[in-house]
Amino acid sequence: MGTDDKVSNKAEELKGRAKEAIGDATDNEQWQAEGRAEQAKGSLKQAGEKVKDAFRGDDR
């Protein structure tokens, strides 16, 4: 379960980076904002996974 979540969270962050880059290239403010939001959401989820791992004692 944890590894799948980590991969999914990282994918969400990367998708946000791509969306923001496309928004930057096309000067589309909506895509820029959505990209930043997706990156933040993915990063926050990753941080949550790291906290869970720390409590479980996982060193991955």
From TrEMBL:
Signal sequence extent: none
Domain annotation CsbD-like: ranges: 5-56
Pfam family, one: CsbD
Basic and acidic residues: bias regions: 1-22, 47-60
Domain of life: Bacteria
Region (Disordered): 1-60
Family listed: Belongs to the UPF0337 (CsbD) family.
Name of the protein described by the UniProt record: CsbD-like protein
